[in-house]
Design goal:
With 172 residues, the chain is an alpha+beta fold. It is built from five helices and six strands. One of its GO terms (molecular function) is metallopeptidase activity.
Amino acid sequence: MPLTQSEMTQQKIDLTRIEAQVNHCFDKADAFFGVRFKRSHSSFKQRGKAAGTAHLYKNELRFNHFMFEQNPDAFLNTVVPHEVAHIIVFQIYAANAKPHGKEWQAVMKKVFGLLPDRTHTFDVPPLKKAYSYYCLCQTHEFSQRRHNRVLKGVEYRCKKCASPLTRIEKHK
């Protein structure tokens, strides 16, 4: 469903807040390392379960607007530094550092003064069309994309019980 004019205006305001925090994080890193890092482009293109992603080779940060709206201050103070830290580490070490390795953790702690946490506590958006699968311990909801991968032969396993996930067929 397309955004209304009001929603588009609010997204622009929110993106301005994100960009200000991104620049603030880069300024902190510049001061800490004594160099000027190349600034990243930011957008609200992130979808699904991730709060944000750093596209290292594109020097691009993508953020999830659905999650930002839940708690903007928490998002700005945790997710934005998390993603900027990935870009900083990449600009220093190139592809030689692990995504949440010791270099990234050091940037989170020493530059941003944050615990290097890999997960968020934001609610994820509801799936537009969900497909139900089950394992030995619970049911799982799959997105259209993940369901299509199953149809092409990809097998998924439960992270808790390690059993394969099987589609719950809907009876007509």
